Amino acid sequence: MEIAGKVAVVTGGGGGIGAALAERLVAGGARVVVADIDADSAAKVAGALGDKAVAVGGDVADEQVIAVLIATAEREFGPVDLYFANAGIGGGPGLDSTEAQWAAAIDVNVMAHVRAAKLLVPGWVERGSGYFVTTASAAGLLTQLGSAPYSVTKHAAVGFAEWLSVTYGDQGVRVSCLCPMGVDTRLLSGDLIPEDPDAAAFAIKAVKTAGAVLSVEEVADTVVEAMAAEHFLILPHPEVLQMYRNKGSDYDRWIAGMRRFQTMLRA
């Protein structure tokens, strides 16, 4: 899969991984709709990319907003070839997470992907091509200490991407799932659990202790390289694959190890 000449939508494009993806896509010859709930941030990113990008502000978990993104892409550039379901939020801490925190995490981290796929996949099947890229997390393959909503919804995001690939992969729809550990974004600067600084600090400490913190540019480059090879799992931290294998080979041992890691962090 080559990105040159393609039309892409990137959600959560006002900063972090999304902004880096938009920049990398335009550099590779694609045209991009940059979407973000922060309209000013989206406009700033798109403006820096020139006439190959346009911005749309809005809640990308809202099906009507997703429809606007698709319509904007079609009007400005042509039919959408690539959709990056990149927007994500942290959620709450543990069992004390509120119903509102759970609902928001499910809406943004999972249902936004489902709603986008509902609008795009039938047309991609008819055309025989399309690419859906989910930004999940290593937490979706392993877990996230300190945040139940984040861990659970990222698992669900991976699960939906798997289902999408299995169900439509033979009809021209390609799917990749990005699962990094630490990346230098706002989530790793306190926004993972904004309502609970102590829980956020613990969750962020777990991420930073587990492996290197990568730049958003490094992650964007890894995504484009993996898409060229049409890999399902995109792992900017290669060690995640071995961790995932260890988990699958002996689940009880892996859980015991995670408990020890948690105890070490708390100490």
End-to-end gap: 47 Å
| Strand order, largest beta sheet | 3-2-1-4-5-6-7
Low-confidence stretches: none
Shape, please?
A: globular
Radius of gyration (CA) equals 18 Å
Q: Might you state the CATH topology name? A: Rossmann fold
CATH architecture: 3-Layer(aba) Sandwich
What is the subunit organization of this protein? single chain
Mean pLDDT: 94
Task: Write out key terms for the chains shown.
267 residues; alpha/beta; Rossmann fold; seven-stranded parallel beta sheet; 7 strands; 52% helix
Give your account of this protein's structure:
By secondary structure, the protein is an alpha/beta fold. It has one domain: Rossmann fold (3-Layer(aba) Sandwich). The protein is 52% helix and 13% strand. Helix 1 packs across helix 7, helix 3 (63-76) packs parallel to helix 4 and helix 8 (239-249) crosses helix 9 (251-266). The N and C termini lie far apart (47 Å). The mean pLDDT is 94.
